[in-house]
Write a structure and sequence with these properties.
Bound molecules: adenosine monophosphate
Strand content: 5-15%
Number of helices: 9
Low-confidence stretches: none
Mean pLDDT: 93
Order of helices and strands: EHEHHHEHEHEEHHEH
CATH topology: Rossmann fold
Distance between the termini: 8 Å
CATH class: Alpha Beta
Strand order of the largest sheet: 2-3-1-4-7
Helix content: 40-55%
Number of strands: 7
Length: 216
């Protein structure tokens, strides 16, 4: 299974991708996670990406494409992969399909998570994460057992810098301008399925599993 999760930031793609990756035994690749890891490690790539991420802008295509191609070429993706947060531009989508074509592969399905913008903003603003194990919570929908503390490592939860109100707006503008055209792009290729992203985590998960198993 080679799947792309497409949709606005904060819609819940990452939470569902973690579950599907584990339960369907396919490698989840999140460019956001990979970039944040590089930023934390202070690598050259991380330092280059940091400024763009803090401003809520996209990291240049060349950087992200290099990062993802390296992962896709590795043995961990042999059984398939699930891309979360990639591609985010038409250039990235074209490069991805060329890369896969060269290896005799193609994307099977693109799941587009749809949600009204006011709910997207509510979800991003309430998101909190553990700086150590990277577990993701939401103040209302996925609250930690003990307020403000990670269930697993008991570290104080933090809010991502780019989830703060001043950056959310620019991320949504960038999403509309750069990423939304991919909905039409994949629709034209006949591989897009729309998933209603509203409701609780388990509700969305049930719809998603039904969609993915029905298409197998
Ligand atoms: P995410 O965790 O997917 O919301 O990504 C966080 C940030 O990482 C984004 O706002 C971008 O700055 C950067 N980023 C993640 N994926 C991509 C991508 N495919 N292309 C460009 N920038 C990306």
């Amino acid at each position: 299974m080679r799947v792309i999760f497409l949709g606005p930031p904060g819609v819940g793609k990452g939470t569902q991708a973690d579950f599907i990756g584990k339960n369907f035994s396919i490698q989840k690749l999140s460019t956001g996670d990979l970039l944040r890891e590089s930023v934390d490690r202070g690598t050259t790539l991380g330092n280059e990406a940091k400024l763009f991420m803090e401003r809520g802008e996209l990291v240049p295509d060349k950087v992200v494409i290099g990062l993802i191609e390296e992962k896709l070429g590795s043995s961990e993706c042999r059984n398939g992969f699930l891309l979360d947060g990639f591609p985010r531009t038409v250039t990235q989508a074209n490069k991805l399909s060329l890369f896969l074509e060269e290896n005799g592969e193609a994307i099977d399905r693109v799941v587009y998570f749809s949600l009204p913008q006011c709910e997207v903003i509510e979800r991003i603003s309430g998101r909190r994460s553990c700086p150590k194990c990277k577990a993701v919570y939401h103040l209302k929908s996925i609250p930690p057992k003990k307020e403000g503390v990670c269930n697993v490592c008991e570290m104080p939860l933090i809010q991502r810098n780019d989830d703060k109100p001043e950056t959310i707006q620019s991320r949504l503008v960038v999403y509309q301008r750069e990423t939304e055209p991919l909905i039409q792009y994949y629709k034209e290729r006949g591989i897009l399925s729309e998933l209603d992203g509203s409701g609780g985590v388990s509700e969305v998960r049930e719809r998603l599993v039904a969609l993915l198993t029905q298409s197998e």
